[in-house]
Amino acid sequence: MECVIQFLDNAHQRELRLLAQRRSEKYEDTIEQYKKLFLVQLQYLKKDCGNKECAYSQACKIIKNEIYAQPKAQIEEFFNEIKNIYLLWIDSGVKDAFDKLDNLLERYKINSFKAEISSSDIFFKGRVSEEYLTRWDMFHIPFNKRHLIGNQRYSLTGQPIVYMGKSVVDLVEELGGERT
After folding, report:
1. SS3 (DSSP) at 163
2. How distant is the alpha carbon of residue 18 from its chain centre?
3. Domain match, 101 and 128 both
4. 21 secondary structure, DSSP code
5. How many Cβ atoms are within 10 Å of 11's Cβ, its own excluded?
6. In angstroms, rounded to a whole number, what is the distance separating the alpha carbons of residues 48 and 60?
7. Separation between Cα atoms, residue 65 and residue 70, nearest integer Å
8. Measured between alpha carbons, how far is 14 from 146 in angstroms, rounded to an integer?
9. DSSP 3-state assignment of 24?
10. Sign of the CA dihedral 15, 19, 24, 25?
């Protein structure tokens, strides 16, 4: 792969995460595998994008220079902190995990996204299922059935997370579905 933008693209990173999941039994091991895959592939990015007609070639150069300026140990430490935050989360330290995540994002200046939500906004709630779901199925899963909860992008096994979006398309994208 030549383009850092393609490398960092959600679809490519999803492929890396899925590969890491197939190589792991526990989610903390998945984070470790993902870190290794990320760092190995990062090494093989070319300095210059081979596509001369690429609209992002200048942005590619800037992003690559910024990434390569980061010591490998710092990137590894970021992944390690994510793993530690996850371990804190599953050990019922939810508030501490959120605080540590907020501090981590603040330190790396990647928590600047803010969205205003109005009480008049309409949201859709999504859930992955092979079967038809009734409106009753969309209520929060009872705690005695938490073992049925699988992993999605932001949820963890046994830790229910509500997936909401301003459109059905948002939910399909977020939950990894196909648009048809």
Report:
1. strand
2. 11
3. no
4. H
5. 7
6. 8
7. 9
8. 25
9. coil
10. positive
Residues 12 and 95 in one domain: yes
Residue at token pair 């690559």: 64
Task: Judge whether 85 and 27 are in contact, CB under 8 Å.
Answer: no
pTM exceeds 0.70: no
Contacts of 173 (CB under 8 A, 6+ apart): 179
Stretches where the chain sits below pLDDT 50 are: none
- Burial class (CB within 10 angstroms; exposed 0-12, middle 13-18, buried 19+) of 124: middle
| CB contact at 8 A, 57 and 5 | no
Give the count of alpha carbons within 13 A of 128, CB side only. 16
> Number of structural domains, the chain?
2
pLDDT of 5-21, one tens digit each? 888 888 899 899 999 98
What letter would DSSP give residue 175?
T
Strands 124-126 and 163-165 turn out to be antiparallel
Distance of CA 13 to the CA centre of its chain: 8
| Residue-level length of the chain | 180
Whether the Cβ atoms of residue 1 and residue 7 lie closer than 8 Å to each other: yes
Q: 12 near 6, Cβ under 8 Å?
A: yes
Position 156 in a domain? yes
Range of the domain at 144: 124-174
Task: Please tell me whether residues 70 and 130 are part of one structural domain.
Answer: no
